[in-house]
Amino acid sequence: MGGRLLSEAEGYQILQNAGINVPEWATASTKKEAVDAAEKIGYPVVCKISSPDISHKSEVGGVITGITNREMVQQEYDNLLERVRSTRPDAQINGVLIVRQVQSGTELFIGGTTDPSFGKVLSFGTGGTLVELWKDISLRLLPVDQAKASAMIDDTRISAVIAGFRGTPPLDREALTEMIVRVAAVFEKNPDIQAFDINPFLLYESGATAVDARFIIDDQNHQDDLTYEAKTPLPDQFFSPHSIAVVGASATPGKIGYFIVQNLLPFEGPVYPVNPHNDTILGKKCFSALSEIPETPDWVIISVPAQAVPTVMEDAGRAEVKFVIIISAGFRETGSDGAAIEKEIQSIAAKYGIRFAGPNCLGLMLPHQNINATFAPVLPRPGPVAFISQSGAIISAISDWEVVRDIGASAIVSVGNQANLTFIEYLQALTNDLHTKAVVLYIEELTDGSAFIEAVKKIIKRLPVIALKSGRSQRGQRAALSHTGSLAGSWEVYKEAFRETGIITAYSLKDAFETAGLLASEGWPQGNRAVVVTSAGGFAVLSADYAEDSGVHLIDLTGTMLDELNAFMPQIWSHENPIDMIGDAGIERYAKTLDLLIRHQDQWDITYVAASPTSSIDSVRLAKEIVRFSTQTEKMVVGCLIGGESMRPGIKILHDSHVPNFSELSDAFGATGLALQALRDSGQFNDSSV
């Protein structure tokens, strides 16, 4: 991060002005000034080098502690300067800071950074010279109030020491919380401050002191770059086009323009290929320019070389087109020349009020309308889950993937470079889409993380969002840069932003889509009280383990429930939850158990119905019972029909009825656990059982 490093004296002044306790200090430019300062402050003192070029003073021998008299000041003043000059001959030295040496305490860290996507972020944790080794850090996006500050403390391992550990007295948590809030306010209210470290920040049984402070400022701050700019509203036909034009359509098999027209053939509305060199393409009349089309198309898809895109955008503007999909690549992802073309098409779009997807994108799919406006070969079956992706290749892969085929898709969007339409607009549009019940995001970068978070907060309760973020490693961040022109922000900051918002963080596409399918069908869980119904003893045992791992609470069956179960169960059933009906259980036993749970649905929030192939179970009849059970309760019902060919007919019934089914018990509990954790983290659960 660029910027100017303030002197430590300037950092002390910033903290002192905010009411944060710092040790008494003075800056000396001569040996005599150093002695006078030490005498005035009182011994013992610490000598620290003051240099805008040296961030970590101890690494160059720039800190001397335990100075107890004037003779030591005189001696160590010279030693300090000589040592630093020999280690860093290039460094500018402004003098020596004389600081009162404070008593030792518990070393903590408070810091801040400006993330390229989310803006200012505060961090807190274990401090000292080993801060990078311990990595005991908690993050929060600004602003930070008392509640957030307290939660930050609780997130860290050092919180156990603060509370009093193994007979040690508790430390002043109230003072610490107040200091975190004050430091956060300083960071938030000073736009020039880009980053800072207070390390160590010493905490005592009573009070606290900031010992070292490092502030980086940017006199030409770019915080406004993170402000989301409202653009022309999306056209009414954004997700419901009646006509589509393809500029760059081709009659040559293998060309992208050929595949796009071919994929649009099942679309019921008119498709207008545009290419001056053909009369027809795939049986469709071809036009030499957009201006020759007899109507204004709702969508225009552009697949021409990047250099030609601005001309096509001008043609679209004059034709009063309001939505464009730019498939073409060769923009900012390729360097400065491509970035200049991208800016040009942004200006043209603003002039005419055009909204556009891309550039450098695969396109859009709307399965419910039989629209495949991409060059990917497979359109998924209609379903309730939308997918917004920064990778076209991933879209091509998941469109033909068994998990997505089972769940179905409402919309699939390739965002490309997000030069105009971003994740924000797509999410807002999907909120009003009757077909969409949950959204999966594949994210490499967010162009405005703060605006994204604010937008998601408004929709998350009615539209669950599951995010898979790439670029978590340094190598992954470099790959993202070359892939879409992204500069991926810190993974830890993304994770914290998702946590605060209630976005479910997934670590694989499989987890993301299975969790989305669960929530699209069942909605958010109302609590974590769960029941497991199974005829397999092994599944019962595993369920208990997975529930504990996932934060799912297996309820104790009430006396009334036990009496009702005993009335039709064999003597050797489990007599507890998980309800193990034993291996000879048939459909009738499952049905009676599910009927009982309907009568007592005030006792539970989630029911898992697990079964494996046995001679006594017909998967079709069992699936129909699970569907019936699901329709008679608003609570979450999770199918776990586990097996091969003999279970497939039943699994198909569950999928067709939009009842989630998991082929692994661990995945079922993992998905519900992710949803529960997202609700806890975002404070959306008031139920004390969670």
Provide a descriptive summary of the structure in words:
With 690 residues, the protein is an alpha/beta fold. The chain has 5 domains: 24-100, Dna Ligase, domain 1, CATH 3.30.1490; 106-226, 2-Layer Sandwich (D-amino Acid Aminotransferase, Chain A, domain 1), CATH 3.30.470; 238-357, 3-Layer(aba) Sandwich (Rossmann fold); 361-523, Rossmann fold (3-Layer(aba) Sandwich), CATH 3.40.50.261; 524-681, Succinyl-CoA synthetase domains (Rossmann fold, 3-Layer(aba) Sandwich), CATH 3.40.50. The chain has 23 helices and 30 strands. Strands 1, 6, 7, 8, 9, 10 and 11 form a 7-stranded antiparallel beta sheet that branches. The protein has a 7-stranded mixed beta sheet with strand order 20-19-22-21-23-24-25, with helices on both faces. A 5-stranded parallel beta sheet has the order 13-12-16-17-18, sandwiched between helices. Helix 2 crosses helix 3 and helix 13 (423-431) runs parallel beside helix 14. The protein is flat, with a radius of gyration of 31 Å.
What portion of residues is helical?
A: 25-40%
Low-confidence stretches: 222-228, 476-489, 686-690
What's the count of strands? Answer: 30
User: Which fold name corresponds to the CATH topology of the largest domain?
Assistant: Rossmann fold
Which band does the percent of strand residues land in?
Answer: 15-25%
Figure out the total of helices: 23
Identify the overall geometry. flat
CATH class of the largest domain: Alpha Beta
User: What's the pLDDT, averaged over the residues?
Assistant: 90
CATH superfamily of the largest domain: Succinyl-CoA synthetase domains
Indicate the structural class. Answer: alpha/beta
The largest sheet is:
7 strands, antiparallel
CA-CA gap between termini? 41 Å
